[in-house]
Amino acid sequence: MKLIIAALAMLAAIAFVVTGQEPDPAPEADPAEQISQPRVEVHVLRRAGRQDVITTYGLVQPRWQIRLRAETSGRIVRVSDDALAGAMVRKGGTLAVVEDTAQRLELANRAAELNTARRVLAEEQQRARLARDNWTAAGYKDAPDPLVLRAPQLTEAQAQLDTAKLAVNRARYVLQQTLIVAPFDGAILSRSVGPGDLVQVGDQIVEMYDTAHIEVRLPLTEVERARLGKPIGAEVKLTSDISGNSWAGRVTRVGQSVDSTNRWIDLLVSVPEPDGLLPGQFLRAEVDGRWHDGLIGIPRALIARDGAVWHVGFDDLLRRISVTPVFSRADYVFVEPSSDAPPVFRLAVPSRSFLEGMLVTPVLMSDADTLSMFDTGDGQ
């Protein structure tokens, strides 16, 4: 076998010497075929009006949270179930009852003093009429002295009557305070007394908060505050990241000072229908800011790490364009194009291989006006 292979090799060498020809070389490739234009995915983005939305987090709090205290002294004779921690109570609902014997006695004494004051005033008025009649019957032409007509006594009697009326009203009020009632619709946070406890004026009965007026305090940076424009009345969407529930709110007040530690400015948002909201909840808030004309919403995936975008012109050449964000939201950055920017952005997904002026083959993936792949779900 080895002899056969050697013989074949020798014959091939003799043929090459006789013919003097080399094997035909491989045909050269066309340069246009050697370097093909890279295909790039292009997304078409157009200018449109955009609503700036500031996203922050805030704490739920009641507008009113009070410690209801006793306004009279005595022994607690009854505590309502509505006064137990966690209970819901309606305005005017009785929470506790103080033994009222001393208060009723005080009211009776003040009522007796009022009756006495009325009698004294009536007697003084009668004496004054008699004194005037006597002065007239005597035929005096001059005006009588006030002392003759008992004017000082009348003034004193009237003052005593007015004082007695106020004392009765005060005693009646104190008697009413033996019933500890809720000043508004609310929820009980804690209870401080039980049946048989002796309370003094100023002792705490319960702590409660107003369930009908719930607010959310939103801290904003000064930059975010400037993005709002005129915030009073701005609509706010509030969402719980835990439950997914959402509520609608509206900005009603703006803090008039800047937090010295964090440099925050507070927005106070009222929630008209706070069902399900509890003080202390942490909510995500989206606050409507300024309206901007002619912005372009660019998905973050189309922005390079250096903050620039790659634009594919209608001549299929790549151009690097720097953009300055006006605001960002979710996965979008909204920019205001410069005066020399193209009317339509044809943006390619950034690649390390991109070079300024590179010729590419664009492949249209989406048009922001006709397709919804970049729809944020909120009108953007």
Counted by DSSP, the helix tally is 5
Unreliable residue stretches: 1-34, 369-380
**Topology, number of strands:** 21
Content-based structural category:
alpha+beta
Shape: elongated
Multimeric state: single chain
Can you describe this structure?
- This protein is an alpha+beta fold and 380 residues long.
- It contains five helices and 21 strands.
- The protein has a six-stranded antiparallel β-barrel with strand order 2-11-14-13-12-15. A five-stranded mixed sheet has the order 17-16-20-1-21, with no helix packed on it. It has a four-stranded antiparallel sheet with strand order 3-10-8-5, with no helix packed on it.
- Strand 12 and strand 13 form a beta hairpin.
- Helix 3 (101-137) runs antiparallel to helix 4 (151-176).
- Mean pLDDT is 84; it is low at 1-34 and 369-380.
List keywords for this structure.
elongated; five-stranded mixed sheet; alpha+beta; 5 helices; 380 residues
Present the secondary structure layout.
Layout: H1 2-19, H2 31-34, E1 39-46, E2 48-62, E3 65-69, E4 74-79, E5 88-89, E6 94-98, H3 101-137, H4 151-176, E7 179-181, E8 186-191, E9 198-199, E10 204-210, E11 214-220, H5 222-228, E12 235-239, E13 246-254, E14 265-271, E15 282-299, E16 308-312, E17 318-322, E18 325-329, E19 332-335, E20 344-348, E21 361-367
Parallel strand pairs: 1-21
Antiparallel strand pairs: 1-20, 2-11, 2-15, 3-10, 4-6, 4-9, 5-8, 6-7, 8-10, 11-14, 12-13, 12-15, 13-14, 15-19, 16-17, 16-20, 18-19
Helix pairs in contact: 3-4
